[in-house]
């Protein structure tokens, strides 16, 4: 049956079709059904998309902060009735060509999504996911590994200290030390005092040990039932076939269950609330400008689509760009460095809320920040918004609804995230994707009355359900928390009998034995190497010369949105200009021009574009690891009807950027500092790996300078300058623009539907006519490698560690590159995952080979271990050099490599990637030759490259951790101590 033939009232495989709706803005049809017996809900988005997505979700509101929903999400993927192996989820990562596999826990729902472009693979994963969700084993051993357990520091030594261990436990220790994450959790606690959102669904580290295995099983029995399920699929798949499988595999085994998982609307506060919370900061760290302040108002029911859209537009009007009144007032005040995380409107939970605040502030500024926000809202309510600003906010809404994204996550999953809030709470999910009727009502009200002004008064100013939260650092808190945990563990240990102590030792041994046991995975479905496409599909491109500038035209189904990339080489830049290029990239789109100040530029960009972005680019030579091409790229995107205005703005930025507003530079640099510092705990493994790579290659050193901790340090240094002292920087930035923005340095790319090429060609030609010709200069790389320590300890205030070791290897076209790529997958799946995550308790243990930079990495993420992990890396090398690789493991690792290689791109992403390939000299022949070499990798090649590059090659270590952890490690490392560096 064709999906387009579904009609309301139709019965198929136990489901009844409820509604069929066209979604022309995203070229899709939404089909909604329910299962007659169990009441399970099913939604399908019928789209011309080969990347088929499936997800099953459950409403899972927790009653406490033990992390039961989160731990269940982990444990459900540790084996099921049909697939009774220890870790089918991670096993399938290497037996699949998936384009996405994951699971996620939100405040009130849990979701299990996957996608694949291979039909056989899609059905394999469908079997795994359905069985994991509805029929998991949930063994006590898996609960203790993934959730929490009591265990001696040395598992078989009852004289060593007793500890809490577990993957989720350590994950949440890291998450709850991050001020951004903590701000969100603490705000929920006070804004929702009577409903489930007051609890931390991920788990509070101090509460997680209170969860019992039986409580986990009870939670699954209560909530993971078809009567409490939401199924979602998307793509050009056969819906009838999919419904039949879901019915057969799951739904026929259940009856309808009358369960109550609904989340009630939050009860209203009678008066505003002010609260203070704290987060841990390492002793000796400065406390100034480290606090966060946020004010939040409880709003309305997520099921009121009109209210949601109105508040979304109001949020855009107040905060959508630097010229928006509340955004401008907060940043101009000097009371903080940047907007607080979570600033804006949140409509993904039962009762929505609006928040605004500042980070990089001090506790004594709370009153001033609160007064500023309230007075600004009063002023806006009195003065209103201009029609032009309202039109700009509506334009941005239209743009975001039409843009086909999906380079980081499948586009269909992003669509699901937009509608899951109202859908899972009983509202109309259609309104999240098709809002024309609500928008028309809003426009009518705006024409007839002060609509947004009244919204500010009714929903914010006169709303007594308001929470003002101060989150401030405390250099004693971490030690106090550790001491409380130690006291709790000591008390437990004192009460243990000798028999109970031996039982703990025995359980630790049993877990270790199970983790090391070689399992028979034959019950798991798999693919064969013959299922892999032998050739990459070429991205069509037209190359032309426009005013002597190379221009590449990519015809892609962008849904009426054009993407323009202007890429400039760096010839002629001085070493100092080269160093400051990322700063230039960050500031160019945030300042004004000779025609408009930064506020006018911000308003213009919102009115006619989907954004203008600047970045540095570094592409490795595929034939020589000692060479790379660095460039600067300015990229803009717009609806086709706004092609000319987009190019006009790009031309202004290129020809007349104005860096003379030193106060603006100061403000943006402080914003950037806070943003970068917030990114470190989230991406600690990446920062550590970049630091390690910096001592191994010129491109590695340059990447670290531009996007590593060195860049964080540079931005800190600049942000600390007075406004007046930034005059020298302004002159430097102007000089970079003058040197860079010439025709001789430029290559361009345009991605849009072929029928929309003509207006972009006209606009591009006009821009190029105004661009100076420029002189051809030496193309030599300015950067020079600065010697660095091969063993670094990078100090950051975090309670967990990020441990990396990086090895230098070979260029992309070298014959060994393919084997190194496969070896990384093999090490991750067959050794590091078990040793670092399962046994070591880290959230992640990984290996990766960047075949373009020629760098091989081993990494850990949110790791309670440090020295042990470094030892594991040595053991991993010995394991690989021994060369005892099962043939199935090699095949699976090759499959995993191709799963990464063939991940689908968004239309714009396809053009961007091919543009990079063309600039890099990465030809289609090279890429297809690599595919053939990957398919031919064998055990002998794997053993040989392990010995040559890992055992006997050059490597570097970098560990990002707290000061105490690094000091303790160095005491044991002795002569091999890490060179400590405070960022």
TrEMBL record:
Keyword annotations from UniProtKB, A to Z: Coiled coil, Hydrolase, Metal-binding, Metalloprotease, Protease, Transit peptide, Zinc
UniProt xrefs under SMART domains: M16C_associated (SM01264)
Segments forming a coiled coil: 482-521
Chain ranges of the Peptidase M16C associated domain: 471-718
InterPro entries: Metalloenz_LuxS/M16, Pept_M16_N, Pept_M16_Zn_BS, Peptidase_M16_C, Peptidase_M16C_assoc, PreP_C
Family indicated by similarity: Belongs to the peptidase M16 family.
Keyword hit for Hydrolase: yes
Name the record gives this protein: Peptidase M16C associated domain-containing protein
UniProt keyword DNA damage present: no
GO molecular function: metal ion binding; metalloendopeptidase activity
UniProt-listed Pfam families: M16C_assoc (PF08367), Peptidase_M16 (PF00675), Peptidase_M16_C (PF05193), PreP_C (PF22516)
């Amino acid at each position: 049956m064709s999906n387009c033939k579904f009609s309301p009232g139709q019965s198929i495989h136990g489901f009844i079709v409820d509604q069929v709706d066209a979604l022309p803005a995203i070229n899709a049809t939404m089909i909604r059904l329910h299962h007659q017996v169990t009441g399970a809900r099913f939604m399908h988005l019928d789209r011309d998309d080969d990347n088929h997505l499936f997800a099953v979700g459950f409403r899972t509101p927790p009653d406490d902060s033990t992390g039961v929903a989160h731990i269940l999400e982990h444990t459900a993927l540790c084996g099921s009735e049909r697939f009774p192996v220890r870790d089918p989820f991670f096993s399938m990562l290497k037996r699949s060509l998936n384009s996405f596999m994951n699971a996620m826990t939100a405040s009130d729902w849990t979701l299990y999504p996957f996608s694949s472009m291979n039909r056989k693979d899609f059905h394999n994963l469908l079997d795994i996911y359905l069985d994991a969700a509805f029929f998991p084993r949930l063994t006590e051993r898996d609960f203790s590994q993934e959730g929490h357990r009591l265990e001696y520091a040395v598992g078989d030594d009852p004289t060593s200290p007793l500890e809490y261990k577990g993957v989720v436990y350590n994950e949440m220790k890291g998450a709850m030390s991050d001020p951004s994450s903590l701000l969100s959790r603490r705000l929920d606690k006070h804004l929702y005092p009577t409903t489930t959102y007051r609890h931390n669904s991920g788990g509070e580290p101090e509460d997680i040990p209170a969860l019992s295995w039986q409580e986990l099983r009870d939670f699954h029995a209560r909530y993971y039932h078809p009567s409490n399920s939401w199924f979602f699929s998307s793509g050009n798949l056969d819906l009838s076939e999919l419904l039949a499988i879901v019915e057969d595999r799951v739904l026929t085994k259940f009856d309808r269950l009358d369960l109550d998982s609904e989340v009630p609307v939050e009860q209203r506060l009678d008066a505003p609330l002010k609260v203070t919370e704290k987060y841990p900061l390492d002793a000796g760290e400065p406390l100034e400008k480290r606090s966060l302040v946020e004010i939040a108002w409880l709003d309305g029911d997520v099921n009121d689509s009109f209210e949601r859209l109105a508040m979304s537009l109001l949020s855009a009007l107040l905060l959508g760009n630097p010229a928006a009144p509340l955004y401008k007032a907060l940043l101009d005040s000097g009371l903080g460095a940047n907007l607080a995380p979570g600033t804006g409107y949140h409509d993904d939970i039962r009762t929505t809320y609006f928040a605004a605040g500042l980070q990089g502030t001090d506790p004594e500024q709370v009153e001033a920040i609160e007064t500023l926000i309230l007075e600004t809202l009063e002023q806006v309510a009195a003065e209103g918004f201009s029609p032009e600003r309202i039109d700009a906010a509506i334009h941005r809404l239209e743009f975001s609804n039409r843009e086909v994204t999906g380079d980081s996550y499948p586009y269909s999953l992003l669509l699901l995230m937009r509608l899951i809030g109202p859908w899972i709470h009983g509202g109309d999910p259609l309104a999240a994707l098709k809002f024309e009727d609500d928008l028309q009502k809003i426009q009518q009200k705006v024409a007839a009355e002060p609509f947004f002004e009244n919204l500010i008064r009714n929903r914010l100013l006169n709303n007594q359900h308001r929470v003002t939260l101060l989150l401030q650092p405390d250099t004693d808190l971490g030690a106090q928390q550790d001491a409380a945990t130690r006291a709790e563990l000591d008390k437990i240990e004192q009460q243990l009998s000798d028999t109970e102590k031996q039982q703990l030792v025995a359980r630790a041994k049993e877990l270790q034995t199970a983790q090391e046991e070689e399992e028979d995975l034959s019950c798991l479905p798999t693919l064969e190497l013959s299922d892999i496409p032998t050739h990459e599909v070429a991205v069509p491109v037209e190359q032309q010369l426009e005013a002597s500038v190379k221009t590449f035209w990519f015809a892609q189904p962008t849904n009426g949105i054009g993407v323009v990339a202007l890429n400039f080489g760096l010839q002629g830049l001085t070493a100092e200009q080269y160093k400051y290029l990322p700063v230039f990239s960050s500031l160019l789109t945030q300042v004004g021009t000779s025609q408009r100040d930064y506020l006018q530029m911000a308003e213009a960009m919102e009115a006619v574009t989907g954004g203008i972005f600047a970045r540095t680019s570094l592409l490795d030579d595929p034939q020589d690891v000692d060479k790379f091409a660095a460039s600067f790229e300015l990229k803009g995107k717009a609806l086709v009807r706004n092609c000319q205005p987009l190019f006009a703005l790009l031309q202004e930025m290129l020809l007349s950027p104005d860096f003379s507003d030193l106060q603006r530079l100061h403000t943006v640099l402080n914003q950037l500092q806070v943003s970068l510092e917030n990114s470190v705990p989230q991406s600690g493994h990446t920062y550590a790996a970049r630091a390690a790579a910096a001592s191994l290659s010129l491109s590695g050193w340059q990447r670290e300078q531009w996007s590593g901790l060195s860049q964080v340090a540079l931005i800190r240094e600049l942000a600390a300058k007075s406004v007046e002292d930034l005059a020298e920087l302004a002159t430097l930035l102007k000089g970079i623009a003058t040197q860079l923005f010439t025709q001789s340095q430029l290559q361009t790319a345009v991605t849009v539907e072929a029928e929309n090429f003509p207006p972009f060609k006209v606009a591009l030609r006009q821009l190029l006519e105004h661009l100076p010709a420029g002189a051809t200069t030496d193309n030599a790389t300015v950067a020079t490698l600065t010697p660095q320590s091969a063993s670094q300890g990078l100090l950051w205030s975090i309670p967990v560690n990020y441990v990396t070791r990086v090895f230098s290897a070979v260029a992309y076209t070298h014959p060994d590159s393919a084997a190194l790529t496969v070896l990384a997958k093999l090490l991750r799946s067959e050794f590091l995952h078990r040793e670092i995550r399962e046994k070591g308790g880290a959230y992640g243990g990984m290996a990766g080979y960047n075949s373009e930079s020629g760098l091989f990495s081993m990494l850990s993420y949110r790791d309670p271990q440090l020295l042990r992990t470094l030892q594991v890396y040595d053991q991993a090398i010995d394991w690989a050099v021994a060369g005892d690789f099962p043939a199935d493991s090699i095949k699976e690792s090759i499959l995993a490599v191709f799963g990464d290689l063939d991940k689908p791109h968004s239309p714009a992403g396809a053009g961007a990637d091919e543009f990079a390939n063309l600039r890099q000299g990465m030809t289609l022949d090279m890429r297809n030759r690599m595919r053939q070499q990957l398919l031919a990798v064998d055990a002998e090649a794997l053993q040989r490259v392990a010995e040559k590059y890992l055992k006997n090659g050059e490597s570097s270590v970098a560990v990002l951790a707290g000061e105490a952890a690094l000091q303790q490690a160095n005491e044991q490392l002795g002569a091999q101590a890490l060179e400590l560096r405070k960022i």
